UniProtKB/TrEMBL annotation:
InterPro entries: A-D-PHexomutase_a/b/a-I, A-D-PHexomutase_a/b/a-I/II/III, A-D-PHexomutase_a/b/a-II, A-D-PHexomutase_a/b/a-III, A-D-PHexomutase_C, A-D-PHexomutase_C_sf, Alpha-D-phosphohexomutase_SF. Residues 419-453 form the Alpha-D-phosphohexomutase C-terminal domain. This is Phosphoglucomutase. Residues 9-138, 157-257, 279-370 form the Alpha-D-phosphohexomutase alpha/beta/alpha domain. Belongs to the phosphohexose mutase family. It comes from the Bacteria. It comes from Thermophilibacter provencensis. Its cofactor is Mg(2+).
Amino acid sequence: MDRRGDIIRFGVDGWKARFDEGFDDEGVARVADALGLVWADAAPGATIYVGFDTRHGARGFAHLVAGILSSYGLSVRVSDCPCPTPAVAWCCSRDEAAQGAVIVTASELSCEYGGILVRGADGGPLSRRFLDEVEQAISLAPSRELGAFEECDLVGPYLAELASHVDRAPIAARRPRVVVDAMCGAGTTHLAGLLTELGCDVVEMHVEPREDFGGIHPDPHDPWADACEQAVVAHGADMGLLLDGDGDRASVIDEKGNLLPARVLVPMLLGNLVMGHGAHGRVVTTLTCSACISREAERLGCETTAVPVGFNRIYRETLDSDVIMGVEEYGGVCVPVHLRERDGLLVCLLAVEMLARSGKSLTQMTAELEEKIGTMCYARRDLRLDPAATQAFRNVLPGLNPGTLVGKEPVEVSHADGLRAQFDDDSWVLIRPSRTSSVVRVYAEAPTASVRDDLITEACDLVRNGI
């Protein structure tokens, strides 16, 4: 995910770096050259889709990528405007001639960063093997030959397909007032325009082009969601919708200005898919997702599969046709019938449809959900250690098997993704060293905040004592 000197390293889905630390024409050309080499060797003449967000120089970088890919004999189609990552992925997934996609974006990172995300033929993530092959093909002296490419509308067809996933009638009948905050990112104007077309009364924020994102990070969580929360109350809106910088993740705000946590929003969306759309099948979550999701899945008659952290793990499960939803711990949602990738715009549309169908407020819907499945208190704490200490903990982690934590005896202890202890009241704690930095992440959930905090504190002590 970074570049040290002349070495470019890929993260789980591409390359991200600060503009003052290597994300420039030279670095972008090197990555594009390697992608062109690998893709052209695997599928000569295949189609590649290219999109870009609203960051500094993004359109120019996208055109540079497109020109280099084209020089390898690939057929390249480039968005004619800033566009959400899921729009590019969806267009790629619907084109039988497509081999993959490139999106110039750093998603929710601050304005100091640029990035290149890479997607496969079905719009989903690519394998580590593929990314390693591209990484190894990165040259210090890439080809700067540029070929011709086609600019086209990637957003229009995607938005039309999105609209087909919701019932227009209840939305048009209720005409909910919605505050839309795309956080100066790639979803700006696109989501608001679609909701207006569906019959919503829309107030849009952060519409003006701002390469500094108006001083916020395009991350749909507090504190960056504060302005939208305040706007919902000020405008008397029924709900607020936030998109991250490239539109693959979203958050929802209730009419009182409260950001709905994933443990509330995801079960609501699942209920809408099952009860409103007749969906039935498996729900795939990460091991760090709230127990509220699996409780609601069980109540609705759906099986839940929990996998280690990382969207690639969720994606692999979606290759089976029985998966109706994939969920990350902070609310990134994939609905495979639409796309095997996260799509924040679809989340927003489903949330609006669910509200319109209910005839209630989000506050009322939250209370009713908690009456059915209960409530849980969720938190994460990051322990920042030096590299040697982090590695030392990784070494001892497989041998840790605590008999009790905060006086509670686990009913199950798993080392599938760090150390996870599960208790009989659905509370749990997970200790997981980061794969990319010197951080140990500690997650916990319990029926009360005090038990949750005690679990986190004791787990942090376990880390420190284990080094």
